[in-house]
Amino acid sequence: MTNAIEASGLVKRFGKTTALAGVDLAARPGTVLGVLGPNGAGKTTAVRILATLLRPDGGQARVCGYDVGRQAHQVRQLVGLTGQYASVDEGLSGINNLIMIGRLLGQSRGGARARASELLERFDLTEAAQRPVKTYSGGMRRRLDLAASLVGNPRVLYLDEPTTGLDPRSRTDVWAMVRELVTGGVTVLLTTQYLDEADQLADDIVVIDHGRVIATGTPDELKDRSGGQVLEVEPASRAWLDRTAAVLARRTGAQPAADTESGLVRVPVPNASVLPVIIRDLDEAGVDLAEFTLRKASLDEVFLGLTGGRAPGQGGDHGQAGDHGPAGDHGPAGDHGPADYDGPADYDGPADYDGPAGGQAHIGGQGHAGPQHDDELRELERSPR
């Protein structure tokens, strides 16, 4: 098996909206594949197809060698899925959440408790293990949610915007956990709106826009392909911003971006040989310099260039349920529950489960919002279980 995840020509339509229009992507075992794109680009739809939560209308996809359509059950035993918002049961303690998931996955009582304790220690939650999740901070809930997706020891983990809403320290903690998972051999597919997150974690990146792949490569390859270097010029007076931008445009052939707040003018440059000429032209134009810096392009600048200036988080979303996941997904392994669990919402837990009677089996890995399209709801009902 060359790739842990491999998709070719994926097509998905919701009524008249084409969410995916022939997407190809691949993730090597034990690496992080970053999937980037504006809202509505099709990122989450692709994840949901790879997690067997949606059927593609065209194309093929394999996870760990198994076809996501014909061998959905096998795929579900190998994947975990964590969405944007914590989906654990807030009324239960951290340890009882994990025990419940382990029991639903078929683990013995002792095995489920041992796995829960192991994960709580791994994610630095042992001291809070007996507390109700509703008392946890946002970062603690996110760590518990990640732990929940690992109860079944998945070989592939889908992280759909895992650090949305977290403070910088909590984001850094999640990054460290992802790196640890990859070191242990787990393959991670990461969607994110934070370009620095992709830059930090991703071995390879796929950029999707309007349902199509518009760029692939490592972070450095994408930066080099976009022009590679950015010149930042700060004139001594902001009254000279327009004059500075005109000089840079003439000498680089690119459209500079002038930031009136910072007083900087930025422009991509093909190579450093043009810099002495620019300095001379600025001097002749009567522009005194406060700063003149050449640096490597950031992933943010690459992304904006590829998507026509639409940053992550912008753009109209097509309302895929995958944004938060359907509340009633029937428990694919990636949604923390067993692949074929169809239990009612008022599930009372197994007889030897340590949680309170009547505790809901919060199976949906992203289960806070239902499908936003009738077409998608019907598609979910037809999805293999």
Textual characterization of the structure:
This protein has 12 helices and 14 strands. The protein folds into 2 domains: about 5-220 and about 315-380, Rossmann fold, CATH 3.40.50; about 230-295, Alpha-Beta Plaits (2-Layer Sandwich). A hairpin with a 2-residue loop joins β4 and β5 (about 65). Strands 6-7-8-3-9-10 form a 6-stranded mixed β-sheet, with helices on both faces. Strands 2-1-4-5 form a 4-stranded antiparallel β-sheet. Strands 12-13-11-14 form a 4-stranded antiparallel β-sheet, with helices on one face. It has about 375 residues and is α/β, with parallel strands linked by helices.
List keywords for this structure.
385 residues; 4-stranded antiparallel beta sheet; disordered C terminus; elongated; Alpha-Beta Plaits; alpha/beta; 6-stranded mixed beta sheet; single chain
Short description:
This protein has helices at 43-50, 72-76, 94-104, 109-122, 138-149, 168-183, 195-201, 219-225, 241-252, 275-284, 299-306, 374-382, and strands at 5-14, 17-27, 32-36, 58-63, 66-67, 79-82, 156-160, 187-191, 204-209, 212-217, 229-235, 257-259, 264-269, 289-296.
